[in-house]
Amino acid sequence: MSDGNSKGGKRPDHVAFIMDGNGRWASQRGLPRVLGHREGVKAVERVVRFGLHEGVRYLSFYAFSTENWRRPVEEIQGLMRIFRQQIADKSEKLAEQGVRLRFSGRLGEFPEDIQNLIEKAEQMTASLERMQVIVCMNYGGRQEILDAFGRALREGVSELDERSIRSYLYLPDVPDPDLMVRTSGEIRLSNFLLWQSSYAEFFFTDTLWPDFAEKNFEEAMEAYSKRTRRYGSVENYES
């Protein structure tokens, strides 16, 4: 755990975001839902800038869940266009800032051109260490656990513990999130990082994701700095 943020308290190394409210943001303005998703990209950019300023090492974003395929065809097509554009456009800009870009989920179910963009972005930034940005696409927490057990069974593993199960997760080297932030006033995990969030601290805000700004991130960091993390034990806590 790193110490010190802009307010002088302890700082999370890994912050995960459930980016909720894009559709509602657009609906409130009489706009197509896809424009809410495009505006949400700007919020991601703000969060990455602030995270770099604060020295956060990992930022995870819940971009597209395994359940999101059930949304209207027009919205899914719009999201695919956004993914194509943003992965291509942002990977070089992130690389210039020393940011490693990674993706987590059942990526093989995306169209081939998106898979190619993902592979290229990951290869381009693989050696960078200032921060890791993890985009969770076609991701589901239950599915990740099922896939982990499936891989273990196929390899003939007869006994599993927490350490060995972690080795079969999508990104086993990424540490568990210290802080999970959800926007739009909803108070649930929505199948995000179920295994990894066991001892995460949570911060919920009514702010819709496209309106999420540096001040909101700072508020979440400040709330985290005042938490005491015991991991289920009275003795095991951070002072």
Task: Describe the protein.
This protein has helices at residues 22-28, 33-54, 73-96, 112-125, 141-154, 162-166, 214-225; strands spanning 14-18, 58-65, 99-104, 131-139, 179-182, 201-204. By secondary structure, it is α/β, with parallel strands linked by helices. The radius of gyration is 18 Å and the shape is globular. The protein has one domain: Undecaprenyl pyrophosphate synthetase (3-Layer(aba) Sandwich). The protein has seven helices and six strands; from the N terminus they run βααβαβαβααββα.
Describe the secondary-structure layout:
Layout: E1 14-18, H1 22-28, H2 33-54, E2 58-65, H3 73-96, E3 99-104, H4 112-125, E4 131-139, H5 141-154, H6 162-166, E5 179-182, E6 201-204, H7 214-225
Parallel strand pairs: 1-2, 1-5, 2-4, 3-4, 5-6
Main traits of this protein?
alpha/beta; Undecaprenyl pyrophosphate synthetase; 239 residues; 6-stranded parallel β-sheet; disordered N terminus; 6 strands; globular
